[in-house]
Specification:
- The protein is of the alpha/beta class.
- The chain folds into 2 domains: 133 residues, Nucleotidyltransferase, domain 5, CATH 3.30.420.40; 172 residues, ATPase, nucleotide binding domain (Nucleotidyltransferase, domain 5, 2-Layer Sandwich), CATH 3.30.420.
- Strands 3-2-1-4-5 form a 5-stranded mixed beta sheet, with helices on both faces. Strands 8-7-6-9-10 form a 5-stranded mixed beta sheet, sandwiched between helices.
- The chain binds adenosine-5'-triphosphate and magnesium ion (MG).
- Adenosine-5'-triphosphate binds next to helix 4, helix 5 and helix 6.
- The site of adenosine-5'-triphosphate has 24 residues, from helix 4, helix 5 and helix 6.
């Protein structure tokens, strides 16, 4: 065992990214790799579950071998095996969990079933920002928009969630309406940098009340109603519409996170999930948190979208607290964080 440090191996396969990572029991990521299928699914305009599952099978074994050799470890050095058990696509989740269980059985080591959202939730504490501290967290991903109070690792309280679309879904659906390629969020972000965010007056949901809940379906409808009078063949119009939609989403996310921090009297806020890659969101959060005297921890961009480093880090917290999972534990596409 290099350096005598015990390590945990984790797998992530909840959607269309196959990933493996090794994390030391003191919370350092020693190796992490992701095989993305984005180019495969682009031709269908979204993730095709059956295709995703088959591609996980093709990549998962070589990813395990690759992270072990990158860190200079052998399978027998691994003290526990973990995998994302939900939420996600059943046929995709089954590949990572089956592999992790098989390795655990073969090596006679424990298995841990990890909640994908706990991975996102704790990802801002990776890269030497740990240990996990009391805070208010915003998770903004493709399937979730959650405000969560972190009391300590494993003890979480949901403060608010979306009533309809997730923030990532709002980005992707608006992008699709504008004719941008899948996945639309990053492309909308790129074009928004060149546009005028005041071009369209789009709705900011629930801004007038104290609610910590979100709703993005109205924004989608508002963009849809504007479409007939927009000449999207003009690059500047397209950029202006992207900037307007992004501003509407970002303003709501920033305002509600600050509101939640005030409500809980917490001074540390964290942000994670694919949408936290968004450049406009990162700038707005940094400025607003500075003005409000809040400490902000943003997940590193490569840790915002799906990866196994965050799953390994969450698994290490659980393993160190004495938790393991039974071998007959099942995947759950709707697994709740709390
Ligand atoms: N720069 C960006 N700006 C806006 N959205 C982005 C950006 N980069 C990624 N996204 C969005 O992030 C989402 C993907 O994030 P992530 O991988 O965390 O979600 P997911 O794993 O599909 O969903 P969940 O974690 O809720 O199951 C997509 O909706 C994508 O468009
Ligand atoms: Mg995710």
């Amino acid at each position: 065992m290099p350096g005598g440090v015990p390590v945990l191996l984790a797998l992530e396969s909840s959607c269309d990214e196959t990933a493996a990572a090794l994390c030391s029991l003191d919370g350092r990521i020693l190796a992490a790799q992701v095989a993305s299928q984005a180019t495969i699914h682009r031709q269908y305009g979204g993730v095709v579950p059956e295709v995703a599952s088959r591609n996980h099978v093709l990549h998962i074994r070589s990813l395990v071998e690759s992270v072990l050799s990158e860190a200079g470890y052998g399978l027998s050095d691994v003290v526990a095996f973990a995998a994302t058990a939900g939420p996600g696509l059943v046929s995709s989740l089954l590949i990572g969990t089956s592999m992790a269980k098989a390795l655990a059985v073969a090596e006679g080591k424990p298995y841990l079933a990890i909640n994908h959202m706990e991975g996102h939730l704790l990802s801002p504490f990776l890269d030497g920002q740990g240990p996990v501290r009391r805070s208010v967290a915003l998770i903004v991903s493709g399937g979730h928009t959650l405000l969560v109070r972190i009391h300590e690792p494993g003890r979480y309280e949901i403060l608010g969630r979306t009533r309809d679309d997730a923030a990532g879904e709002a980005f992707d659906k608006v992008a699709k309406m504008l004719g941008l390629p899948y996945p639309g969020g990053p492309e909308l972000d790129r074009l928004a940098r060149m546009g005028d965010p005041t071009y369209l007056a789009l709705p900011r949901s629930f801004m007038v009340r104290d609610s910590l809940e979100f709703s993005f379906s109205g924004l989608k409808t508002a963009v849809l109603y504007e479409l007939p009078r927009l000449d999207l063949t003009k690059a500047e119009v397209l950029a202006d519409v992207c900037a307007s939609a992004q501003a509407a989403i970002v303003e709501v996310l920033v305002e509600k996170l600050v509101r939640a921090a005030r409500h809980c009297h917490e001074t540390l806020v964290t942000v994670s999930g694919g949408v936290s890659c968004n450049s406009g969101l990162r700038v707005a959060l940094t400025e607003r948190c500075r003005a409000e005297g809040l400490e902000l921890l943003l997940a590193e961009p490569e840790l915002c979208t799906d990866n196994a480093a965050m799953i390994a880090f969450a698994a290490v917290q659980r393993f160190n607290a004495g938790f393991t999972s039974p071998m007959d534990s099942e995947v759950n596409p709707n697994l709740a964080l709390v």
